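BUG-180 | component: ligand-complex export | severity: low

The export step for coenzyme A jobs runs without errors, but we want the raw record kept on the ticket for reference. Input record follows.
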Amino acid sequence: MTNLRVRFIRHQEISPELRIKIEELDHLAFAGDDIDNDPEFANIRWAIPDWMALGFLHEELVTQLSIPKREIMVGAEKIWVAGIGGMATHPKHHHKGYGSALLKATETFMRNELQVPFGLLICADETRPFYELARWQHAADILYYHQDDQRRELHTSVMTLQLQNQTWPAGKIDLCGAPW
Ligand SMILES: CC(C)(COP(=O)(O)OP(=O)(O)OC[C@H]1O[C@@H](n2cnc3c(N)ncnc32)[C@H](O)[C@@H]1OP(=O)(O)O)[C@@H](O)C(=O)NCCC(=O)NCCS
């Protein structure tokens, strides 16, 4: 399993060829997803990430996630977070530990390179165990985001990961922009 090669690439530096592979894997993982039929999710314009984390077996892209970095509001506090979005492993490689290996490498990247105090992601309740195995903790069942000059609510599992010596503040979570 440890033969997974992980690369972190700035989103704007991804080659057109690699972008196609990323879109193919994203489509395989999420096309026909229940959230496409959920009016709360269907009209969301998702954030453009700052980084992509990509896991390769030789030249084959097998697992991926996107990483935005953003200063958000929690209660009255401004805090920096790195997000995780679009977490996907190729279906033929599920349950081989590749997703967890990418998540682990991403934790190190967030702590050492991005130097943010927290990670933040949203997920379906069913997927929570995958992140809990990597020490992510449930923080809320609702968050706020901004689209079309409106502050909107999103009802979903919000999970956070402590990366430095700082505890997650109390209060409503406002992403201050598009969600991921
Ligand atoms: C979620 C996903 C990325 C996991 O990738 P993976 O490479 O198969 O994950 P791992 O092999 O590292 O899984 C490690 C453990 O996490 C848990 N786990 C894995 N996938 C899970 C899932 N879909 N739901 C809940 N728990 C899961 C299991 O305990 C697993 O151990 P096991 O293989 O012994 O059962 C993959 O199932 C996927 O691409 N799903 C479709 C897209 C999606 O739902 N992404 C998450 C969006 S929030």
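Assignee comment: Attached the raw record above. Strands lie at 5-10, 51-57, 60-67, 69-74, 77-83, 85-89, 118-123, 137-147, 150-162, 173-174.
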